[in-house]
Amino acid sequence: MWPYILHRTAAALLTLAVASVLIFFFIHLIPGDPLYVLLGDVATPEQAERLRTKLGLDQPIVVQYLRWLANVAAGDLGNSIFFQMPVTRVIRDGAETSILLASITMIWITLIGVPIGVIAAMRRGSWLDQCLSGAAMLLASVPTFWVGLYLILIFAATLGWLPSSGYPSIFEDGGLANLRYLLLPSLALAAPNAALILRLTRASMLDVAREDYVRTARAKGIRPARVVFRHILRNALLAVVSAFGFTFAALISEAVVTETVFALPGIGQLVVQSILRRDYPVIQGIILVTVVLYLVINLLVDLSYRWLDPRIELQ
């Protein structure tokens, strides 16, 4: 186990090194100058030059990259050009919303996708299976913003059960009750992803159900429910868990549209605003943190395979 973890860690560091080069140089290809975003169009060339020197943007691009890389290695993502504060603090302020939104969304995906996928697989070919599969295909094809707008119309504007926008931190007045602001956005995000998990769970269970050990278990007279949950579902979860890992990481980037529709102060909104402001350090920091998140989740998913099926050897 530990040799595998060390090997994956070394590969992750190499991936991060390559990603840092791509992130830094491609970000600086974005048209526009952050100096005029800060100073305005009426800034004189002398003012712009003084600010450029102060921010270190007058240095060659390679020098800027090496300085940024050294700071990242020391745990410093730099300072935001626009907010004039550390990038880590800027990301932290938006991370609460995005992480909670992604976590609640994953709960919806699990509660909706996996059980319904199991039911569809166990009723293969029936009218119930056809209805569930058709509904899943419909949800998977519907844009997230469309689902979000209709959720706002029904549950916020018409029924008045839930708020339609914004998110006050759970650390402010209201506490955990403020999570109700994330229920509609999380449902909008969960709809297409739960549909995909439903289809994947169904397909994986049908594949496992054809295995010889499943037929043997049934021939021994083991209760059908035990066969489903002990032999079929547990082995079918290997593919589902892999999808869960990448779905959670992808939700951070998919949340851009949802956070815009529901006016949430999350990472998605921060990315859009930072691109418009040409705030290079914030954009670089967010993308780098996202890459690290993908790598960590990928490692955890691989390790979970061994827990689900001890026969799997990690190499």
Question: What is the element layout, followed by pairings?
Answer:
Layout: H1 2-27, H2 34-39, H3 45-55, H4 61-73, H5 87-122, H6 127-141, H7 144-158, H8 183-209, H9 212-219, H10 224-261, H11 267-277, H12 280-308
Strand composition percent: under 5%
Helix content: over 70%
Distance between the termini: 9 Å
Q: What number of domains?
A: 1
Helix run count? 12
Structural class: mainly alpha
CATH class, please? Mainly Alpha
Mean pLDDT: 82
Name the CATH superfamily assignment.
MetI-like
- List low-confidence stretches: none
CATH architecture: Orthogonal Bundle
Per the CATH scheme, the topology name is: MetI-like fold
Secondary-structure element string: HHHHHHHHHHHH
What do you see in this structure?
This protein is mainly α. It has a single domain (87-308), classed as MetI-like fold. Helix content is 75%, strand content 0%. The chain has helices spanning 2-27, 34-39, 45-55, 61-73, 87-122, 127-141, 144-158, 183-209, 212-219, 224-261, 267-277, 280-308. Helix 9 (212-219) crosses helix 10 and helix 10 packs antiparallel against helix 12 (280-308). The longest helix is centred in the C-terminal third of the chain and has 38 residues, at 224-261. The radius of gyration is 24 Å and the shape is globular. The termini are close together. The model has no long low-confidence stretch (mean pLDDT 82).
